[in-house]
Amino acid sequence: MPATELTPPEAARWAARAGLVLPAERHAAVAAVANHIHGVVVVLRELDFADVPPAAAYRAGEEKHDGAV
Amino acid sequence: MEPFELPLAAAADAIRARRMSPVELVDSVLDRIDKTEPHLGAYVTIVAEQARRAAGEAEHEVAHGRYRGPLHGIPMGLKDLIDVSGMATTASSRVRAGHRATADSTVAARLDAAGAILLGKTHTHEFAFGLTTPQTRNAWNRDRVAGGSSGGSAVAVASGAATFALGTDTGGSIRVPAALNGVVGLKPTYGLVPRHGITSLSWSLDHVGPLTRTVEDAALVLTALTGRDPRDPASLSVPASDYRPAAGTDLTGLRIGLPRTYYFDNVDPHVEAAVRRAIGRLEALGARLVEVDIPMTRYIQATQWGLMVPEAGAYHEGSLRTVPELYQEDVRILLEASELMSAGDYVRAQRSRTLMRAEWARMLEEVDVIAAPSVPMPAVGADEETVTWPDGTVEGVSDAYVRLSAPANITGVPALTVPVGHDPAGMPIGMQLLGRPLGEPTLLRVGHAYEQTQPTRALATVA
């Protein structure tokens, strides 16, 4: 198992830190799915974001014209 | 032809001309539901008596010169994530037992004002978090998946058990079941149709839109749905517009992007052949094909997951702690695992989305529309979990169904799926048309032009 993969007890501890108490019989399955998700999203670290902001945005107040996406 | 077989536009013409009453149409579709529903399971709830009453009122209005427009007296289904005042929004989940919506969603209120008649609420994969909708069976073959998550809506429309329906689309959930059941599905531009009153899967990826028999029908429904609602923070101020496409089929001068990468990789050969044939048809109508390279393909799935998984986890944070046992296992485990993702993962996905949107905007300066398969393969067997491609790649069925849909969710561009044939087993195949933000008129024009060159499609013959 690569060093970055969560073990079942680590998955349970991380979940508990997030406020989610996992029953013991779920630790292994949750660790496996969490590791799979991590394996998918980790490639985003390859991107050079420089000063690129996140896409999440909000409008401070109403605008009359905001047709552009 | 029975009234339930009519596409929306034809039914609307008949109602406006008083050749057919909304009562006849609604009775016909309710009879059809009686025949199809035991085999297909498209609906969570059917409100037959309420629909008949509404049809009587609609008939009375038409008879007295109060015709509301093309949706007047047209029976429809709403995916059961969409609030209708006084009804449960079950999200096809035991978590929602006892739920009762206290107000209409924006889209339900707009359809009601336009005269559409609610038949019932259609099944979704639980909380829209999946691509198969296991409660519902494919309209063309009961042993195949319906697709999802708007599986009930697609199957109802494909089988004549609704003249149109609404679905939601976070990673393909309108387009996938529409393609797998041989109907039209439109995921509008992000923010064009307000989502107020719709249960969220992932706020920054969720869209709501129509599933219909024809492209023209999708345009008629879209026309009733658009317009800003400040209760949806993503809602756009776009002038009211009639989206009904013109009758012509001439596409001279239109530039159609033909992807050199991504959209035809690991695609079933029957799907590829049918879509390339349809693209050839568009070329014959005058369009010019321009090869395009899809940007940032290595990061599409990572961006989709990096946005969707934490947002879904956040939405369900409360009930995952109080009633976790009420979720289906496939959804529960994803929600639990979502809690182990970092804020860094999420922000990277949002920044990647910024890059991807900019790259797509550049690509869409070179072409007017991109044409591609909607899904890599037709509906698989209900018990199949993976697909093996000729290069040896083994892919989860859900991952495969999301793969060609996700770019339009991440970037917010509109995407339309149009049926373009069947595989040798008789399962439908869809072509996806993607456009610029707010480019719905172009997508609808191209899709409508294609449909006019094709024979009228038959309903699925299930029962």
Automatic annotation (TrEMBL), chain A:
This is Uncharacterized protein. It comes from Streptomyces lavendulae subsp. lavendulae.
UniProtKB/TrEMBL annotation, chain B:
The keyword Transferase applies. Pfam families: Amidase (PF01425). Its EC number is 6.3.5.-. Gene3D superfamilies: Amidase signature (AS) domain (3.90.1300.10). The keyword Transferase applies. One of its GO terms (molecular function) is ligase activity. Keywords: Ligase, Transferase. It is an enzyme of class 6 (ligase). InterPro entries: Amidase, Amidase_CS, Amidase_dom, AS_sf. This is Glutamyl-tRNA(Gln) amidotransferase subunit A. It comes from Streptomyces lavendulae subsp. lavendulae.
